[in-house]
Amino acid sequence: MPSPLDLVLDPSGDVILVLSSHKDTPPESPSTDTVMAEQSDGHDDAESIGSAAEPHSEALNSIEETEEMEVKVSSRHLALSSRVFRVMFDGGFQEGVPREGHRLRRVPLPEDEINAMLVLLYIVHGLSRQVPRKIDLPKLIDIAIVIEKYALHQVAEVYTDIWFHELYESRSIPTLNSDLPEWIFLCWVLRRPTEFYYCTRAAIFRCGPRFEDRGLPFSIPVANRIELARLSTIQKLLDYLNKLIDCYSGSRKQCVSHKACDATVLGDLIQNLKAEGLYPVPDHATIDLPIETLWSTLGARRFTSLCHARPPTPPSATPYARAPKPNADPKCTIDSHFSNYLALLKLETLGLDLEEFPSANARPAHHPEALRWAHNSRYDW
Ligand SMILES: [Zn+2]
């Protein structure tokens, strides 16, 4: 087994973080002018930190063969940047206690993604030249997971704002839709109310009976809220269908031109709904189609009436008058009413408000104007 590698972010540091790398996640190689290889200040425990003066480009290049990596850091920097680390080092936890006979504290962090942790440690220690300016979505997700776990929101905010903005602005709609759980997670951790609203609204329309969070460490009930919002919209649609059926099967006549017109409308409506599996009108919980699919198939349905098939003769007509042309949109058809209702329901279905989903140590998310903008944004869903 290869010997552990050392990375010195603070030569006067008093903590060694032991990071674990996985074979499929080699760390990125920083430039050779990395400052971590500076000489120790003479106060370090050389046995604990190993060869701190080793060139780090070599060290990082060989990380693929290494399971653990020791990084010398400053507990003060960490404690100032994160209340989690503050508790860890100042709160008397085991991690805060130096090994007997050694000044350096050794803190294993085996569960944290090593590359994400390294980027955040560079930020915490002010080593901005080591912080990548561009980052891809999976890497930003890894970083966001560490940020949320250690409450590093504020210290990383300048960088995460830049990364997020660039990725979000350059996204394509199909990509965004396929990565909705990831985007929602990012928007929640990085406190992006407008984008959170938009992405959760898209999820409400696009997800099936379950919103898959893909194992992302949400500590908020976002999946549950998306599912509830989806069911609520479906319930409104089913209520509307029931009202339509009641309306055309009741004693009050809807069409004054043909006695049998209401029955035609009702029969046609039932036939259309049956073709979509919506008659008898089911319980909302049994519908596993995404709202978007439901809207699309129902929106494509065309409804007819007797007045549509046999336009009524105007009262002034004589036997010599020409027969009226079939009316393309007689008042008694439900076509336009139906499509208008679908459009209205779509407008009334809102995304989630980030303010209701707090995140540790993150900035406030209350931006009502931003939410209004999101709802009226150019994106359809
Ligand atoms: Zn009619």
Automatic annotation (TrEMBL):
Highest taxon listed in the record's lineage: Eukaryota
Stretches for region Disordered: 20-59
Protein name (Swiss-Prot/TrEMBL): BTB domain-containing protein
Organism, as annotated: Cladophialophora chaetospira
